[in-house]
Amino acid sequence: MVYKYFKKIKYVFIILALALVFFNVYYPHLSYPLPLHVDEWQHIAQSVQIIDKGILVNENPYFLEVKNTDLEPGFHIFLAKFFSLTGLDPVLNYRFLPAIFAVLAALVLFIFIYRMTNFWIALLSVIFFSILPSNVNILGLIFFVPLTLGIFFIYLFFLLFKINKKIIALIVLLALFFIHPPSGFILLPFVLFYYLTKPDIIKHIKNYIKKYKIVAILVPILFLLSIFFFKDFILKIIKTILSGNLFPTMSSVLGIRYFLPSLYGKLSICLAIVGGFIGFRKKLKDFVLWVFFILILIGLTYLFDIDSIYFLYQRLVYYFMIGLVPLSAIGFYFIVKSFSKLKINKTLVKIGSIVISCLLLFFIFFEYSEIYRYTRTDSPYTKTYRLIEKEEYEDIKWLSNLPEGIVMAPLRISTTIYPISKHKVVGIIEGQLGGGNIPDIDLFFTDNTCALKERIIKKHNVNFVFSKEEIKCNNLEEIYSKNNHIYKVI
Question: Which of 42, 277, 308, 336 lies 20 to 30 A from 460 at CA?
């Protein structure tokens, strides 16, 4: 009876922990129903293009006849299939995806850590996972991008590998290369290390082929298909290597460097250090090696100012933190458990353990609130932003009633136009995609000369103009004026 009651309480704890994950990730959308990052808008654009055309095409969806090599086709195909099968509006419903997949990743993490250690360490891992920092520079759980879907696959890979489902784990790894290549590359050394350190590797492979004949046929086929899909990507990398620009300096991106204890939390990282020593002697050696390996790569980016397509510094920072999560949980559990083993009054030990746990949680969440406040609201470099407001969404949506054409709009709005209305634009904010003529957009909306506006319109074959301010030019006919003005070029 007591066991059944305790089992029910455990389920309650798990549900509450997963609810915490959902709430923390969804929280920014309580006051804003639209995507929070330029990359999210551009991923939606690529998935909308797949839905619209019915196939994956190597084109930039924002422009006419502009080629674009899709390096994350798996992610965009997944989004396209998800929204086409559910019939949900991609823009209005995208806000739920970060929280849903954060919960799924947390659940896989819980199962993995529970199988390797115990319930309480697994539960604490979910809690530490729920407070992983996110900002527009390092991305993170609050944004649904290939990195965050990749986190789910990384944890799933470790779980499958540990429960001896290695073939399925390798298929997950292959899928990860389609979804988020850097996440696939970051796991590759672990797979190679595992197999290369096995003395009977050839015999091991032969046994697998005999046991799993269908899989033995499917894996090479999937590998060949991946080469076919990534042929442009491979050629691009070869050209980059030959040009000597494989490792551009940090000036090519927003070169923010982080003091990792301040980003992850000083107390949390101290617990992770304690957990690292314990984990290395226990069954979580993989996560200790993961953290150590990522830390070396981060060190190399500092030493040589390296920032390649595979190992962007910001992505390494996040890989580092998702590896710290279970180690912090082990450190927390070890400290509380050590106190509970003291040979003093049992009641005092129980009360003391509860007090220590509550104090640790209080200071961990206090640190998280400080990190949250600074990185998401105070820092001009990492705070979240809104490309458009809800009323602007409604105005852009009205554009979908018009025949498809090219729209001249302010830069921040241009990035949202194709995902909402399927119209092409003159230029977009540099993000996951880039392109177009940004100087002409700036010139169009800063210079009030009608002759100049007309030249820019003719240069880019513009059909419609979307403007916050009223424009009085003879070649523009106003066809909409609610919150913004929409003009037809005549």
Answer: 42
